[in-house]
Amino acid sequence: MMLNACLNPFETQKKLFDAWEKNLATSMDRMMRKPEYMSLVSQQLGSTLKLRGMLREPVDATLKSLGLPNQDELQNLYKTVNDLESRMLDLEERLEDSEDARSAMAARMEAPPAPSAAPAKKARTKSAARATRSASTTTRKSPRSRKGGK
Length: 150
Fold this sequence. Notes:
Elements (H helix, E strand, L loop, with lengths): L1 H6 L1 H24 L2 H31 L5 H40 L15 H14 L3 H5 L3
């Protein structure tokens, strides 16, 4: 086995790296859990935030004197652009829906009428209309006969 490791230096290097990584992770985990370390990280974060606050006012004043927007103004602009984009997409969707409805209606109006719905070519007289109406009412079944009742 030792001979095989000597023949493949990459395998030996990988084993060494894996052992180093495991030991480093264990050591870092122990160190990061110590209250002293946590206190130092907390102080560093507090100092960084304080420095950021101290620098914000002079940076904003400099940007204003140059006629440039500050961070708050850029965030407001970004929000406005996002809102406008959302509204525009909604309007485009509504427009597409209305165009689809309009083209569907136009297609229905251009389509030839169905044969059963075609109007009669000759004008019917009142007596012919009555005869048609009476014939259709006499062939209808009564509600009782449809239900299978008496």
